[in-house]
């Protein structure tokens, strides 16, 4: 299955992707599905990795659903409706709001986990993107892949431990191969070649 499947339920959730990968639409649907609410009161979100392929799609959906969004980017951004852009990164974050309803991490998990370990911002829920690499590459023959799996596992553990101490709900999403925005270097490249030549040789 290429659907994200629940692993641990309750205040801490881990959802893992299947072998085929997940579209941008599926990733953002599951991220926002964690926060389904009937409340008409506008909610606030802080988004890290907001200019990446998942983050950009997530911003669009958050604004469409009436959220007030604080989005962090390394580059200066023009103002946009519903989004307050904050220039900075996790190593040198800008001045952040004192409290939001949800923090979304759509960028590197290890950098986010290090920031979150000492964050003073108040939030009810944290939703982070990890990867199935944390499981499938832990025994790889490639030392780079084993290191990646170890860093992802450490990042997940740090986020879960911090959330438990803060009594914050946390969801970890582990997609496989993310595609659909044209920014990946795998499926989008294959689709482009196939469209150009009318075939793709495996």
Q: What topology emerges from the helices and strands here?
A:
Layout (H helix, E strand, L loop, with lengths): L4 E4 L3 E5 L5 E2 H10 L10 E5 L4 H12 L3 E6 L9 E5 L11 E7 L3 H8 L5 E8 L3 H4 L6 H24 L2 E6 L3 E2 L7 H11 L5
Parallel strand pairs: 2-9, 3-10, 4-5, 4-7, 5-6, 7-8, 8-9
Antiparallel strand pairs: 1-2
What does it look like?
This protein has 202 residues and is an alpha/beta fold. It has 6 helices and 10 strands, in the order βββαβαβββαβααββα. The chain has helices spanning 24-33, 53-64, 109-116, 133-136, 143-166, 187-197; strands at 5-8, 12-16, 22-23, 44-48, 68-73, 83-87, 99-105, 122-129, 169-174, 178-179. The protein has an 8-stranded mixed beta sheet, sandwiched between helices. The protein has a two-stranded parallel sheet with strand order 3-10. Strand 7, helix 3 and strand 8 (122-129) form a beta-alpha-beta unit. The longest helix has 24 residues, at 143-166. The relative contact order is 0.17.
Supply the helix-strand structural class. Answer: alpha/beta
Mean of residue pLDDT values: 80
Radius of gyration: 17 Å
Shape: globular
**Amino- and carboxy-terminal Cα gap:** 22 Å
Query: What is the makeup of the main sheet?
Result: 8 strands, mixed
The portion of residues assigned to helices is 25-40%
Q: Residue ranges: pLDDT <50 for 5 or more in a row? A: 1-10
Order of helices and strands: EEEHEHEEEHEHHEEH
Q: How large is the count of helical segments?
A: 6
Q: Which strand order do you get reading across the main beta sheet?
A: 1-2-9-8-7-4-5-6
Report strand %: 15-25%
Strand tally is 10
């Amino acid at each position: 299955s290429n659907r994200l499947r629940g692993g641990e339920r309750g205040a801490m959730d881990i959802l893992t992707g299947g072998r085929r990968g997940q579209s941008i639409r599926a990733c953002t649907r599951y991220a926002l599905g964690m926060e389904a609410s009937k409340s008409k009161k506008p909610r606030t979100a802080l988004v890290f990795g907001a200019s990446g392929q998942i983050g950009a799609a997530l911003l669009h959906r958050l604004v469409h659903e009436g959220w007030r969004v604080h989005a962090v980017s390394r580059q200066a951004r023009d103002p946009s409706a519903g989004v307050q852009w904050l220039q900075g990164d996790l190593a040198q974050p800008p001045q952040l709001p004192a409290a939001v309803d949800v923090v979304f991490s759509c960028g590197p998990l290890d950098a986010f986990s290090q920031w979150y370990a000492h964050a003073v911002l108040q939030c009810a829920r944290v939703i982070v993107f990890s990867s199935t690499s944390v499981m499938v590459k832990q025994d790889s023959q490639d030392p780079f892949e084993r290191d990646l799996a170890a860093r992802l596992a450490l990042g997940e553990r740090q986020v879960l431990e911090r959330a438990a101490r803060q009594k914050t709900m946390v969801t970890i999403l582990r997609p496989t191969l993310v595609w659909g925005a044209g920014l990946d270097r795998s499926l989008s490249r294959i689709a482009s070649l196939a469209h150009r030549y009318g075939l793709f040789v495996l």
